[in-house]
Give the backbone structure.
Amino acid sequence: MARTTDGDSGTTPVPQRLLAAATRLFADRGYDRTSVQDIVEAAGVTKGALYHYFGSKDDLLHEIYGRVLRLQQERLDAFADADAPVEQRLRDAAADVVVTTIANLDDAAIFFRSMHQLSPEKLKQVRAERRRYHERFRALVEEGQAAGVFSTATPADLVVDYHFGSVHHLSTWYRPDGSMTPQQVADHLADLLLRALRP
Amino acid sequence: MARTTDGDSGTTPVPQRLLAAATRLFADRGYDRTSVQDIVEAAGVTKGALYHYFGSKDDLLHEIYGRVLRLQQERLDAFADADAPVEQRLRDAAADVVVTTIANLDDAAIFFRSMHQLSPEKLKQVRAERRRYHERFRALVEEGQAAGVFSTATPADLVVDYHFGSVHHLSTWYRPDGSMTPQQVADHLADLLLRALRP
Amino acid sequence: MARTTDGDSGTTPVPQRLLAAATRLFADRGYDRTSVQDIVEAAGVTKGALYHYFGSKDDLLHEIYGRVLRLQQERLDAFADADAPVEQRLRDAAADVVVTTIANLDDAAIFFRSMHQLSPEKLKQVRAERRRYHERFRALVEEGQAAGVFSTATPADLVVDYHFGSVHHLSTWYRPDGSMTPQQVADHLADLLLRALRP
Amino acid sequence: MARTTDGDSGTTPVPQRLLAAATRLFADRGYDRTSVQDIVEAAGVTKGALYHYFGSKDDLLHEIYGRVLRLQQERLDAFADADAPVEQRLRDAAADVVVTTIANLDDAAIFFRSMHQLSPEKLKQVRAERRRYHERFRALVEEGQAAGVFSTATPADLVVDYHFGSVHHLSTWYRPDGSMTPQQVADHLADLLLRALRP
DNA sequence: AATGAATGAGAGTTCATTCAT
DNA sequence: GATGAATGAACTCTCATTCAT
């Protein structure tokens, strides 16, 4: 069996090792406070290797964003397109994003805190994908409102931002060693959303 | 007659000018991306002046946090201690924090994004004040739950984090030139909270 | 009496010390082969000091160019505007540029070898000043041709480039410890020019 | 049928492709500003291929020098050894070096600008060949002076440097799209030399 | 109260070259 | 013959902070 050191320098390919190290460090101390030197040391490689695979430090961040965005969009699409009543689909999607976010809390911390360190061009691209995600979620709310199962008291856009605020906030307060499991938190937060939407 | 330039170098005292410049710049480009040189240039003073009034760049950030925390705590205390039914007091407090946050969107952006740039000691202090704020808000929720006017389905702590997530999130999506006034947003968000708490 | 060390760190102002060190090093090993570290070490200061006075390494080069261009233009203007027959004025100007170039052989070596390392914007500016110099010199030749004292067999532009080629070339072959004094070289080269222009 | 891309990756042997790419790039942006990566990309090969054929980046430069030196020496020898009066032989040689230099303007630009980038050992070798060339040319001048057809007012060495200065300078000002053909420039410059040498 | 020259450590990035395949 | 991953040293430039004035 493979020797697994701190930097995992045994088996995992170098690019993955670098991404993993960068993710951990960016989440811990922030993008700007993490030096390229820190990353390569954590990954057990040299700077040259990093720049062989990534064009810049910024590229690493962009890769992390891509990974998160792809995952969340796929999961949302799956839940939203399921064959179930809209209340169920919204509840499932709302709970799932919580579970997935907690499972990747480092990614989430980076996501909301470090967006602005991306180069303008990459930021634009990330925002576009983000908007697509938001719109798919909003469509679910609107569908329920049109069907009369959700209150129309609040604009759907605001409802989505309300819920995502709480997801965004998770990395601020959630601790794996706390008293609630990810699933419990997810159920509670989805419940709050659905209760708020009762007509 | 006071000369009033871009940096407001005419009338406003130097410390305030520096804080205002720092707030704007920290919100715009982040704490680490803002150099001390940027701040003093924007404030129309020299580095020596900054270090005369503030011990370090970190001190500026701490001052901004102090200002926000004091303001929010005062307002929360006033609403929570008012003479009104608990539903009303919670609704008012929940709406007020939204209005106040939008009125100081730069402060809010800094608050959630730059906390980790504080020195460990100052961070501890800020977190303690933050906790006090959270607890006062939670006490309101618990009071309503005990009185039977709020559902007990969700732990009060989680309810508070749910709402503050949405406040936190405001700096991400709210634009002053958008279609909703701060008061409208505040009313909607407070309404969502209260609706979610219906028994 | 002032202590005069290798880096002249006693009396001369820092910017001058840096320019002198940069000039020597750029001439010796070329702009690209000279590191900022080399320059500050030779000048006996730190990198921070260099960047306090000069915006970039490129700026140092530009300063050197400015110094050369100003000097040569002033001298050419003085000789060209003198009160003497055109043959005399051209001979004097042609000889003087040789003497001055030999007196500043480092500047000359840098001038012709490192122009292309300037930023595009600064290069444009240098070329414009260079052109002005060329034109003043050409005007002298044309004046003599019009007066009939110089042959018109060769276009004036080409005559100027012919002479400046030889000036340019000085830094390639002239050695202060050689057998000719700067003045002797200057007289010979001016003589060659004037003889070539005989009608 | 051979695929002929930008890098001419179809037919031309790899070493030639590399030399051609290096010549163009060195002339364009200078030796130090051209990376090995740039060269192999322009030649459509990989780094390994370059290091298979050339021992170092420096070797490429040396090859370019060798090519230029060989060509010029051969041509000078041919003209100098021709059966014609010395005035004619000098005129022909002086004009030919101009035409040949213009025909290989990239080589010329590299020659005079990048000599100092050669390793000390190779530089010594190049200088020796250069000296041989200079001496053959000088011998022509001396022959004419001894025969009384050239003025002895100027030392022959200086006459040679005078002319080569103008050749050196060509890459600074000559533009193929200008108003003079290479032959016209060559005739004018040779004429200036011969006129200067009139007794 | 305020200046601004100077520091020194460290930032992100580039690059010629090597070597196992 | 040729690859391309990886190295390690060097590069230009930035920055918070200090201190003599």
